Amino acid sequence: MGDDVGQEELAQRIKVLRERQLWSQRQLAVRMRNVANPKERTQLPSVDSIARRVRAHEAGHPVGAVYAELYRRLFAQHPDVFAPPLLGPDDSVDLLALAWTVGRLDQRVDRRRLLQLAAVSVAGPTALEPAERLMRALTGGYSADAEVVRHLEDRTRGFHRLEEHWPASKLYPALLTHIGEISALLETNRSDELRRRLAVVAGESAVLSAWFAWELGDRRRAEEQVRLVGVAAKQAGDVAPAACMTGYQTYMTGGNHAVGVALASSAIERLGYADLATRAWLLARKGEESALLGDKQGALEAIREAEDVYSAANINARPWTCFLDQARFASLTLSVYSRVREEDRAIDASQRVAAKLGPDTETKKLCVVQADMALAYYRLGDVAEAVRHAQTSLEATTAMAAPLGWGRLDQVINEFSGSRVPAATQFRTEYLASRPKTEPPSLL
Description:
Helix content is 71%, strand content 0%. It has helices at 7-21, 25-35, 38-43, 47-58, 65-77, 95-105, 111-119, 130-139, 146-162, 168-188, 192-215, 219-236, 239-249, 257-271, 276-293, 296-310, 326-339, 343-356, 363-379, 383-400, 403-416, 422-434. The radius of gyration is 23 Å and the shape is globular. Mean pLDDT is 87; it is low at 84-90 and 123-128.
């Protein structure tokens, strides 16, 4: 650990790490064994014995050189824990203003940048302040102009970017307020061009609303928003939101991979080449579902075409494709290649993923990407590395309450069930104790 960190500070850091990661002292002890190398691990006592030492260290008792080094490695794996935490649901940040601010940037927003933006978005601008909205309604002047519509377009992009950092439960109410403002403007506006733009924004927002409703287990609202996407897309003459919605529905099949392949195929056909980033994602989803179905040829054909399309795609073309940066796309290729046992391609994809991950990586991305890394390393025979990535995925998935993360981890755990390595067995036990018992609804 080094002489620059005193005993009191070390005890505090141990406590902060446990509390922010929601770990028990025993869970921390398991992770300390995981960061030890094989030789060190043979010299360590049992997990229960390490947990007793953790309890003593947290109380301020002296820490020997071996444990100090293990703590140092563990802290290095979680640098974001010791940064100021993201604002929670009870904080005063104005989510409508923050979404607008993030959307105007029109670029990826990492964790550190989001913290900075959130700090200044407590009282930022919204599309229409309540008093201004009422005044326009009373005077008959409540109609959308280009500036207000542009504001809503920016805010829609922002909500899609915030979705990578914060759970649905935090963002959903603000998103519904946003959709309500779009509805009010559509009801009163007569300009064909502005109505078309508002319909596009409505479809882009409803896609995300349907996803949030599904994550939160609200089947009725999810189905309602799915229908709204279809109507909005038709009114706007914009096929992309409907294709995106069908792509999201590939995750909502309750594990029916044949239906997942069929949905992805229909979305690809519907979209054509109207948006390359969306097409690349849909092809990759078809590849994943085909691999899970056991169709190796179909999986390889889909992911190879996805790679070709992605090379020419602009991920900022539509709000929902902002997540598809190089790390996330590489994880999709890793997901496919590892499942169809294409070892060389899986290794290459895992290296590309690792090169793009860092302490500021979006939390939701970690749920899926780290689970894919865990599955790949397990199949490559590196169980210790697989468990390390699975732990990171579990931490992110728990923080985000993300059904997609739980689904990916279920696949990892299914693989781990055949292992007798203690670390894999211990993680499986911990995972099963943490896994929510309820499942998001199937929209079949």
